[in-house]
Amino acid sequence: MRQTSKELTPRTRRLLDIQGFDTVDAQELARVAPGLRLAFGLCAVLGGLGTILASPAILLVLTLLAALAAASPVHPFDLIYNYGIRHLTGTGPLPRRGVPSRFGCGMGAVFLLVTVWAFSAGHAVAGYALGGMLTFVVLLASTTDICIPSMVYRSIFGWPPARDAQQVG
Question: Which range marks the domain in which residue 122 is found?
Answer without folding.
Answer: 41-73+99-159
